[in-house]
Amino acid sequence: MMTNMVGALNNALELLLKENENVVLLGEDIGKDGGVFRVTDGLQNRFGEKRVMDTPLAESVIIGSAVGMAMAGLRPIAEIQFAGFMYLAFDQLVNHAARYRSRSRGRFTVPMVVRTPVSGGVRTLEHHSDNPEAFYAHIGGLVVVEPSNPYDAKGLLIAASHMNDPVVFLEPTKLYRLFKQEVPEEMYEVPIGKANLIQEGSDLSIITYGTMVPIVKDVVGKRKLSADVIDLRTINPIDESAIIKSAKKTGRVVIAHEASLSFGVGAEIAARIAEKAIFELSAPVVRVGSDSFPYPFPGYENYYIPNAKKISAAIDEVMNA
Amino acid sequence: MLKQVFDGTVSYLQILDENGNLDSSLMPGDITDDMLVQMYKYMSFARELDAKTLSLQRQGRAVTYAPLIGEEATQIGSALAMRKGDLFVPNFRQHGVYLVRGMPLDIIFLYWRGYEEGGAIPKEVGGFPYIVPVSTQLPHAAGVAFAQKYEGKDVAVVAYVGDGGTSEGNFYEALNFAGVFKIPLVTIIENNQWAISVPREKQSAAPTLAQKGIAAGINVIQVDGNDVIAVYKATRDAIENAKNGPTLIECVTYRLSMHTTADDPTKYRPEAEVEIWKKRDPIDRLRIYLKGKKLWNDDLEAKMQAENRKTIDDAVEKAEQFKPNPSGMFTNMYSFMPETLKEELDDAERNNFYQ
C-alpha cells in the first residue's frame, strides 16, 4: 500500500492490536478523536474502549500506569500528545520504566512503548517541537527509536511492541505526511539497534536520523556526492559498528540532527569515532545541530533548525579540511 | 441560583482502643482468637526485624534504613486483609507487609544491604519492589490494578503511600485514574504524622487526608492506624468491594523513630509528642486485650521473642553470605545485550576493574 507515516503507524497499531489481546493503547484524545495527528484513527471504533483508551489528562499516570500494566502482563502502547509534555512523566521513564528490570534483577520486565511526536518545522506553538532523544538515550534501560520514513516507522513500531523492554518511540511530526512510500500490508519488523545505510559512497559519511534524513539525501543528490548516508533509526542502543565501519572507510564524517548541538547525540557519535577510528580520519568530525538553546517560537524556527545550506557548509568543511 | 451540589463526609473507624478495650459491635465476624494472636505475633516480629536492621545499619552491616516502629498495625492489619492472590505495591517502609506475605527474610536483608537481588520478589509473595521516590509507585499500582480488571481476574491491588506522599502530583493522578476506570485499587495512606521533618499540619490544610479521595470520586475512610483490627476490617471491606471500584484508606499512625537512619528527629520534633503516641502503641494495646482474654501470657511472650531472634539471626547470616555478581548489573538492563554495553562489561571483566 502507498501510505505516509501516519498511515503506516496506524496500520502497525491495528496489526498489533489484532495479533495480541494484551496490547492496549492509552493516551489523551486517542479514542474517538484518533489522536491529534490521527495516528490512532478508527482504532477505538474497531477494538473498543477497553483496548483503546482515552485517559485523563495526566502524563505521569499515563506512563506510570503503563509501567504497571506492563509488569502485570499487558503490552501497553502509550501516546504522549507532544514530546514537550512528556517531561511531566520524566520521572516515570527515568526512575521506573528504565529501572524495574534491574531493580528486581529481572523478576519484573516492562514491555511497553511510549509514542510521542517530536521535532519541528510545522509551525506549532511552544513545547510542540522538542527533540528530547538525548535525554532518554542517556538514561540506560530505555530503548530510543526514531524513524524517518513510513516503511521504517511501521517495522520499528512492530519490533518495539514485540520487545520485552520499555521503548521511547519518537515520531517526527514534519515527516508524518511529508511523503508516501510503498509499505507492505502484512506484519514485519525493522530490527531495533541497526542503522540503515541508505546509500553508499566513498568520499564521506553522513550520519543522521529523523527530520534531517530527507534534507541530507536532497543535498547529497543535488551535489552528486559519493557519500555513505547512515540513518541511525535507533538512538539507543546505538549501532556503533555501522558508524565506525563507515568512518574508517571514508575518513570524513558529518553528523546531522535537529536536536540542539551541545551534549547531543552527535557528541556521543563523535566521541566513539574519536576512540575507535581517529587515526583513520582525514579531517575532524563536523557536527550539525540546532543552536544550543531550547526550541524557539514558530516564527523563529526556520532560523533555528539546520537546513540544506547549513548541512552543505558542514560537508564543505569536512571535505576541505 | 445557588444550591449545594455536593456533600462529602469521612468516617473514622476504631475497634480496639489504646487501652485494649474492644468495640465488639464493630468486630469483624471473620476474626478468630487465633487470628488475633497471629496479628500480635506478626506485629511483634516486625518490630524485632526492625530493631535488628537498625542495629545492623549502626554496625555498618546495612545501608540507610527506614524504620517502621509504631506503624506495625497499619502494615500487618492491611497485609493480613489481602486474599491469597491479591497484590501489593509498597513505598520504602512496608517491611511488615512483605513479612506477612511470606517474603523470605534474607531477601529483605539483601535489599537493605544494598543489592538489587533484594528486589527479586518471589512470585508467590504477590508484591513489587520497594520504591523510593514517594508516591511515584501509585501510577504503577493503578496500572497493575487495571491489568487485573482487564484480564477479568478477582484480584485487588493494595498500594501504600505516606502522609507526605499525598502532596505529590502522582498521588492525585493515580487516584483520579483509578476513579475514572473503576479499577480494583486500595490505596493506604500510612499517615505517620511526619514527612521527615515536616509535620502533618504543614503538609496539607485538609482536615483529613482521606478526603483527598472524595475529589477523585472514590470511597474513603479514616482508620485508627494503630488498631490492627480496624485496619484489617477497613482493608478487607475495600478489597471485597474492589471489583466495584477503588478505595482510599487513611491510617492514622505515628513514626515513633526516625525517618531513616540518616535522620535525627530530636532536631525538629518535641519528645513530649512521642510520649503521647507511645501510649497509643499498636502492640501494647493488643497484648492487653489478649492477656485479658487469656490468649497470651509472659511465658508465650518470652518463647516468641527467642524464636523471633533466632529466625532473624539465621536470615541475617544467610544474607551476609551473599556474593555480589557485578555482571548482573549489565545483564539485567535489557532483554538483550547491546554491543556497546557488552564491550563495557568485557572491559571491566578483562581488566578486573571490580577489584
Keywords:
heterodimer; A: Rossmann fold; Rossmann fold; five-stranded mixed β-sheet; globular; B: 355 residues; alpha/beta; 2 domains
Overview of this protein structure:
The radius of gyration of chain A is 19 Å and the shape is globular. In chain A, the strands form three sheets. A seven-stranded mixed beta sheet of chain A has the order 3-2-4-5-7-6-12, sandwiched between helices. The longest helix of chain A has 15 residues, at 5-19. In chain A, helix 9 (212-222) links the parallel strand 10 and strand 11. Chain A starts with a strand and ends with a helix. Chain A has helices at residues 5-19, 43-47, 59-71, 90-97, 100-103, 133-139, 150-162, 173-176, 212-222, 240-250, 265-277, 301-304, 308-320; strands at 2-3, 23-27, 52-54, 75-79, 112-118, 143-145, 166-172, 181-182, 196-199, 204-208, 227-231, 234-236, 253-260, 286-290. With 321 residues, chain A is α/β, with parallel strands linked by helices. Helices cover 38% and strands 20% of the residues of chain A. Chain A has two domains: 2-182, 3-Layer(aba) Sandwich (Rossmann fold), CATH 3.40.50.970; 196-320, Rossmann fold (3-Layer(aba) Sandwich), CATH 3.40.50. With 355 residues, chain B is an alpha/beta fold. Chain B folds into two domains: 30-324, Thiamin diphosphate (ThDP)-binding fold, Pyr/PP domains (Rossmann fold); 326-355, no CATH class. Chain B is 43% helix and 10% strand. Chain B contains 13 helices and eight strands. In chain B, the strands form two sheets. Chain B has a six-stranded parallel beta sheet with strand order 1-7-8-4-3-2, with helices on both faces. The mean pLDDT of chain B is 97. The interface between A and B is large, with 47 and 45 residues.
